[in-house]
Amino acid sequence: MKLVLVEDDTKIRSLLRQALELDAHTVHESDSAEQYQQNYGTQKFDLYILDVMLPAQSGYDLCRWLRHQGVKDPILMLTARNGLSDKIEGLESGADDYLTKPFEIAEIRARVRAIARKVQGYPQEIMRVGDLHLDPNTRSARRGEVLLELSKKEYALLEFLVRNKESLVTRGMIAQAVWESGTSLYTNVIDVLLNSLRKKVDPEGSVGLIQTVRGKGFKISGRQPNDKDN
User: What span, in angstroms and rounded, lies between the C-alpha atoms of 125 and 122?
Assistant: First the structure.
């Protein structure tokens, strides 16, 4: 998803951005309501994460402003205030969810994943890369007319690659998406899983879709590395 994060605490903002990017979200940052309004205006995002205690305009003010601009997408408020009246004010300003500091990174990632499921909706559209078709509703994939027999981990990895098609994904991103753990524990397992998946997705004689970007990571693409834009 395409997210905006408005948080004036540099350390917290950096930690949140890194955590959300591990789930392959694109994060746009601002340190104040005014900076957001100046940089992004009414640009559309899939989710807005707003800290309440911002300088000048508060997160409540920005939330109300967004709703006044016609934004209907989810808004998640972050705050150190845990009183009932504060939660009520956040919800009545137009927020969809409310998370009290301090919070665990795993919790906000889970909240965002839950919101993503609602945003994406069900049933989900079949995703395509070249002649590869992946159906997230049935968790099945086929290459051309051939149904691929994939393990649970192979399917999870393939779906992660396809959802980020044409984009580089690192081993760290794969470890978080498939195992929800750090790269150091699974570097060799990732390579084994990728090789196993590649044999099924890219059999001998077919156009290779899963590509290795040396020293950086991997991507899945219908375009070959030597293809050029017209």
Answer: 8
Out of 120, 149, 173, pick the residue that ends a domain: 120
- pLDDT tens per residue, range 7-51: 999 999 999 998 888 877 889 999 999 999 998 877 788 899 999
Q: Give the type of residue at 134.
A: L
CATH number of the domain encompassing residue 60: 3.40.50.2300
Read out DSSP for 90-150?
Answer: HHHTT-SEEEESS--HHHHHHHHHHHHHHHH-SSPPPEEETTEEEETTTTEEEETTEEP--
Whether residues 21 and 113 share a domain: the answer is yes
Residues 16/42, Cβ–Cβ less than 8 Å: no
Nearest-angstrom CA–CA distance, 215 and 95: 42
Tell which residue, 25, 1, 23, 28, has the closest CA to residue 13: 28
| Predicted TM-score (pTM) above 0.85 | no
